[in-house]
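Q: Got a minute? One more chain.
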Amino acid sequence: MGMAVTRDEAVWLRKQHAGGRVVAACGCFDIFHVGHLEYLEQAARQGDALFVGVNTDISVRSNKGRFPYFHLRDRMRLLAALNCVDYVFPFSEKTYSLTLFLLRPSVLARGADASIKGFPEEKVCRSLGIEVIQAGTKKRASSTELRTQLEPGGISRPGRRSEYR
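A: Always. Here it is, folded:
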């Protein structure tokens, strides 16, 4: 089970793992689903401690053009409850570059859809010697698709069967 901390605390805690292989991951994790879980589980297997940065509500709005479905404190609480996560903390910038510079992990784990989203952190990873890996499996769940189903007009009609029943 992980611990929710501030970014400053995460940077301090990272120093406590100086001899180990620290993995960093990030995302907004809005409407948590199995794809998120697989990403974090695989990321955790790449090192000794997993530090997860979560976009603040304002940075989600800036990046995606809408506020997240769930508030930052709820998204962080959910992630901290996972056995594979050691530390979870918020970050407010558009990219994870500043956090990587401050945290200096051994590894940055990127999700299965990373090639589609681009890689704004590439320069900082290269300059700091941070290994970049892809974690998780082929995208098979989407927060955006789930959100569409939950918003007005998108809710399934009663009696419609889910493929998972």
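A: The longest strand covers residues 49-55.
Q: Perfect, thanks.
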